[in-house]
Amino acid sequence: MIRAVIVVMIIGFAFGYKSKVPDTPVTYILVGDTISIAVFTVRDSMGLPEKYMANIVTPVCESDKCYIIEIDFYWDLIGRFLDYDTIPGQGLTKLDHVPFTIEDYEKLDEILGTRNSVLASYTKEELVENTRASEIDGFTGATAQEIKESVISGGVYSCFTLWHIAHGAVMDSVKKATKSMFSEALVKKMVGQYDQEVNYYLINHFSDSDFLDYLPELLTTIPESEGYYAKNTIEHMPVEVLTDCLAQGFFASHFASFNYYTQVALLKKLRPGSLNPALAFALKENMDERNSYKNELIKSLLSAEPEVTEANRD
C-alpha cells in the first residue's frame, strides 16, 4: 500500500496541474511523516509579499482505500488561512470517488475557515479507530455529534487532513518567512491593513532595531487601537526607542488620551533625565489630585528634569 501511494504521488506531480508560482520556496510543510510541500510567496504589483500559497498533493487513506487530493492553499502574511482553489479538471472527491457537490465545497469553506475547530482535538488514529461504524465514516454517540458539524459526510479524513495542513505548522513557518522580509514598504503595507492581529504580529516579531527602523509606521497603529494593544506595544518597545524625538513627540500628544494602565506602562519605561520639554510638560499637565501610582511615577521623572513651563515646552 505504501509503495502504491508513493507511485501515485509521483504521477500526481509529474502529470498534474502546475501552479504558477516562483521557483524558490520560502519554506516547506510536512504532511504526515514523509510528504514535504513547498510554500511560495505571492507578490503584489509592486513586488511586495501579498500572501503565501502551496500546491497541496497528498493521499488520503481510509481502511483499504486511498485517493489523492490536489488543491491550492493560500495564507496571509501572518499565517492565517485565506482560501483554497481547486485544480481545473480535478475536483475533490469523497470515499468511492464520489465527487464533491456544491454544498460540500461550501461546507469545506466553512471548515477550513474555522481556526478553533474540534478537529484540532483529534489525531488521525482517533478518527480511524472506528472507521465505517456510522454514517459519518465511523463515529457514534457523543463523538459523532461533536465531529459531525465539522466534517463532510463521506470525507472525514479529507477534512481532517486539509484542516491540519491549513492550520498546522505552516502558520509558524510563514510568520518566520515574513519576518525575514521586513522592509519599510512591507511594514507600511501591513499596518495599512488596519488589522490589530497583524499589528500584534509585528510587535511580537520586531527586533530591537526593527522598533526604531519602523517607528513611524508603528506609532500609527496606536491611536485607534483597542483593548490593551497600546499598553502592550509600549511594553515591547526597547527603552532606547522612547528617547527618540519622534516617539517623545507622539507620546506628548497622545498621553492624555491613553487609559490609566497605558499611561503607567509608558511612565515605567521612561527614564529620568531623558524627557524632552514637550513630553515633560504633557506629564505635568496630566497629574491629578489623587495620590496615585501614576502621580508618583510622574513626580519621579520630573524631579530629574529642568523646571517645566508652558513657555519652554517647545
Q: What is the distance, rounded to the nearest whole angstrom, between the alpha carbons of the first and last residues?
A: 77 Å
Strand order of the largest sheet: 1-2-3-4-5
- The average pLDDT value, as a whole number, equals 85
Along the chain, the helix and strand elements come as HEEEEEHHHHHHHHHHHHHH
> What is the makeup of the main sheet?
5 strands, antiparallel
Number of helices: 15
Beta fraction = 5-15%
Helical amount: 40-55%
Number of distinct beta strands: 5
Regions with pLDDT < 50 over 5+ consecutive residues?
A: 1-20, 130-136
Radius of gyration, in angstroms, nearest whole number: 27 Å
Shape, please? elongated
Total number of distinct structural domains: 2
Alpha-beta content class: alpha+beta
Provide the descriptors you would attach to this structure in a database record.
alpha+beta, 2 domains, 5-stranded antiparallel β-sheet, 5 strands, elongated, disordered N terminus
Question: Please, could you describe this protein's structure?
Answer:
Mean pLDDT is about 85; it is low at about 1-20 and about 130-135. A five-stranded antiparallel sheet has the order 1-2-3-4-5. It contains 15 helices and five strands. With about 325 residues, it is an alpha+beta fold. The radius of gyration is 27 Å and the shape is elongated. The chain folds into two domains: about 1-170, no CATH class; about 180-300. The longest helix is centred in the N-terminal third of the chain and has 14 residues, at about 1-15. Helix 12 (about 245-255) packs parallel to helix 14 (about 275-285). It has helices spanning about 1-15, 100-110, 125-130, 140-150, 155-165, 170-180, 185-190, 195-205, 210-215, 215-220, 230-235, 245-255, 260-270, 275-285, 295-300; strands spanning about 25-30, 35-45, 50-60, 65-75, 80-85.
